[in-house]
Structures are given as C-alpha cells and as structure tokens.
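pls ignore typos typing on phone
uridine-5'-diphosphate-glucuronic acid + seq
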Amino acid sequence: MEVSVFGSGYVGLVQAAVLADVGHQVICVDIDDRKIVQLRQGIPSIHEPGLAALLEENIKAGRLHFTTQASDAVAHGKVIFIAVGTPPNEDGSADLQHVLSVARQIAGMMEQDRTLVIKSTVPVGTADKVRMETRATLDARDKTHLNAYVVSNPEFLKEGSAVADCSRPDRIIIGSQDPIAQAQMAELYAPFNRNHERTTYMDNRSAELVKYAANAMLATRISFMNELASLAESLGVDIEAVRKGIGSDPRIGYHFIYPGCGFGGSCFPKDLKALIHTAEENGIEPRLLRTVTRINDDQRQLLLHKLKAQFPEGLAGKSIAVWGLAFKPNTDDMREAPSRYLMEALWAEGARVRAFDPEAMTECRRIYGYRNDLELCATRDDTLQDADALVICTEWKAFRVVDFDELRKKLRARLVIDGRNLFNPQQLARAGLHYIGIGLPYIRPSSASVPA
Ligand SMILES: NC(=O)C1=CN([C@@H]2O[C@H](COP(=O)(O)OP(=O)(O)OC[C@H]3O[C@@H](n4cnc5c(N)ncnc54)[C@H](O)[C@@H]3O)[C@@H](O)[C@H]2O)C=CC1
Ligand SMILES: O=C(O)[C@H]1O[C@H](OP(=O)(O)OP(=O)(O)OC[C@H]2O[C@@H](n3ccc(=O)[nH]c3=O)[C@H](O)[C@@H]2O)[C@H](O)[C@@H](O)[C@@H]1O
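k done
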C-alpha cells in the first residue's frame, strides 16, 4: 500500500521503516532539512537498536523515501500518518498546533480521498477537530466531493526498543467508525496480525483515551513503587525483595515496578499533565494523577538529597561522577532525564560533574554546551578520576559489571549512590563502599576492606 508519514522523529521514523519493511511503499516527510538529508543516506537521526539496518535495507529496496516536500507525500499516500510532536502548553494541555497544521496542509493539497491516521498522542476530541478542519479546508477549495477519513491509531512503542515494539505490537488500536478507513487499516496492518488478531476497533474518542490511560497506569505503578521504596527504606526493608515478591503474582507482574530516581522521557510527564488538564476541564478532580506526578517530582530530587546527606559540609567544590545521562538505556534521548535534574541541582550547589553515557554524550553537549563544571569523559571509568562520589542515573548494561575494589580506591568518599538499584548492598559493603540505593537497607562497609 502507498503510505506517507508526516514527522520523522522517534515515532514517525520507526513506523515508516517498519511499514516499509513489511512491503509497503513509504514516503516520510519532515520540515527539518538536515534530518532529511541525513536520513536519505540511511543515517538514523536517533539512536534506536536495529534502526540503522532497517533504514539501509528498505532505502536500498526502494520502499522507503524521505522528503521535505509535503505535496509529494500527499500525492503518494492513500493512508497518511501524522506523527508530529504534541508538547505541553504552559497550562499542561497538549499543544496541537503541529497536528492541526499538518491536517490542514494535507486537506489543502489532496486531489483524491485520503485517510489521515493520528499517531501522535492527542487528547480526546482531537480527531473531531481534525475532521472539522480538513472538511473546512476542502470546502474552501470547492473539493466538497473529496473525503478525508480520520483514524485514531495511538502508538505504544518504548524508546530503546522502538523497532522491536513497532514490529511486533502487542495491540493495534484503531479508532474509526468509517468502514472504508477500517478496511484500509486492516489491509495496512495485516502483516502484523499473522499469528493472531491484535487489532481492536473502537470509536476515535475511546482510542484517544486508551493512549493516556496506558501511560498513566504505567506511571502510577512506578510512583507506587517509589513511594513504597521510601517506606521500605525507613523500615530497613529491601524493596528489591518486595518487588520480586509482588511481581510473581500474575495479576501484578514484573513490568514497570522498578523503583528508581523517577520516570523521565518525553511522554509520561507530558501525558500525565495533559490528562490532568483534560480531567480538570471536565470537572473531574484528578486526585490520583496529581499524586503520581507529585511523587515523581520528589523522586527526581532524591539523588541530590541522598548525596547532600552524606556531605554535611555541603557539595560546593565536590567532584561527582555521573553514570548514565539518557532517561533510560538504549536511547540517546535526554528529555526529562533524571540525570538532568541531578546535574542542574549539583551545579546550583557549586559541585562539578564528570559524566559518561554510552550513547547520549553528543546530546548532552548539545543541551549544556561547554562549561567548567561539566566534564564529559571518554569512558565510564574515567569519570572516577578525582571524584568524591559516584551517582548512577541509568541502568545501562555496561554499568553492571564493576570492580568494586577499584571504585573504593578511586572515590574519595567511597560513596556510591545508585538510582537504579544495580548492585547487591552486601557485596559493596564487603568491598568497603558506602552504597545507597532506592529503598535498599544501608549496610555499614566492613572495616577489614576500609583503609585506616
Ligand atoms: N517518543 C516516543 O517514545 C513516543 C511518542 N509518542 C507520541 O508521538 C508524537 C511524536 O513524538 P516523537 O516522535 O517523540 O517526536 P519528535 O519530536 O521526535 O518528532 C517529531 C518530528 O515531527 C517533525 N515535524 C514537526 N512539524 C512538522 C510538519 N509540519 N511536517 C512534517 N514534520 C514535522 C519534527 O521536525 C520532528 O522531526 C508525540 O505526540 C508523542 O507523544 C507516542 C508513543 C511513543
Ligand atoms: O507514549 C510514549 O511515548 C511511550 O511512553 C513510555 O515509553 P518510554 O517513555 O519510551 O520508556 P519507558 O520504558 O516507559 O520508561 C519511561 C521512564 O520510566 C522509568 N521506569 C520505567 C519502568 C520502571 O519499572 N521504573 C521506572 O522508573 C524509566 O527509567 C524511564 O525514565 C511507554 O512505556 C510506551 O508504551 C509509550 O508508547
């Protein structure tokens, strides 16, 4: 099928590549010329495992094209995805200007019926707005005979496993009550439904709410565990044992119950804000959602508080090693990353940061530029040079195997603060390190391994 995708970010680019890979003819359009020039050469604009190979293969096979010309995309795609950003407005509501402007652009150019598929995360009622705006634009062009069908098809991929998630979706939500659009979507997604039917059809508004409900539920689980971690810590209980204990109940499951230094990324914080705004607008007091957000706001300050508690003299002049800058492993995305809250707070306290991340160094430089209190180190272990303490913000695999004796020798305060509970507290205590996790019992370092 001929498909076009507006927006070649995390969602649009991965969706375009995955659809091309199953045999569709895809044109991806973006307003960012630099991105398009790079993508035409098969160079991904983001770090996602498996994406480079998928781009190369499908560009070579002639199934995947990139352009800045919206008119080419509108002429090509019978089905046109809208996968542009929906960032928060000041009041927390989702900014729909990019979605609506793409919809108007399509209606302003189309010469045949088109199906507009909203992939972006948008509040309930957006499909109705898109339908009204496209109809008005078509009517103003005297194209009253043309139809712009509007489908709500939210995306559930996770960054860091976007290609895998998009290639093998656990569900496909189609919000549309139009039989023509439904049939097109069934044909488009048929290759993803070979083993069993993954598609659920519903109305647009329900599909729009499914997306926010899913993200809010996942965020709630994390805030619940973070609150419980604080309680466990004050009781001297190990939250990791509690996590395993509850996760084994299939009604609870192991996913999304990892306590940590707060959830980040471009979506959970933004989507919670938007859902809170929708609730308020409709006279519903979003008590739970507000609490989920408040717990997360506090959680993002926790690493700093734990660090300050260990240095009663203050953090001014201290050198802190930071492992992990991306908001989660396997991505270079630092939007709302816990590392940013930590580093900015450390700088405000007069501390210096020596940081390393396997993928997000360029992104970190882009955000913070060159500054005296930030050293981006070539390797994980270089960060430890002249450092007082180590703080871990992201659970990259490359951080899991560590020579604890080396850590003790290098870190002046022999202190490791772990925002992801990567290690066994007993092992670090035996190695003579002060190890402070999230909801883990503190075990005094064994005196045998601590130099006099
Ligand atoms: N990042 C993620 O993991 C997920 C994001 N989403 C949702 O998908 C949407 C897009 O998110 P991302 O891909 O992360 O955003 P992004 O910021 O990475 O990409 C958006 C792209 O749209 C382009 N764009 C803006 N206006 C345009 C226009 N008029 N024509 C063509 N291109 C245009 C931008 O240049 C940019 O490349 C958001 O609503 C987000 O909430 C949904 C699921 C997962
Ligand atoms: O709407 C979106 O954009 C996407 O948002 C999330 O995906 P993403 O933000 O890419 O990554 P997650 O794996 O969900 O992690 C989000 C944050 O939660 C944190 N997290 C996750 C899981 C957990 O148990 N504990 C925890 O603290 C992660 O460290 C990270 O900071 C959802 O998982 C996706 O289904 C959704 O499509």
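The pocket of uridine-5'-diphosphate-glucuronic acid (ligand 2) is lined by residues 121, 155-159, 215, 218, 222, 256-258, 260, 263-265, 267-268, 327-328 (CB under 6 Å). The domain at 302-449 is CATH 3.40.50.720 (Rossmann fold). more later
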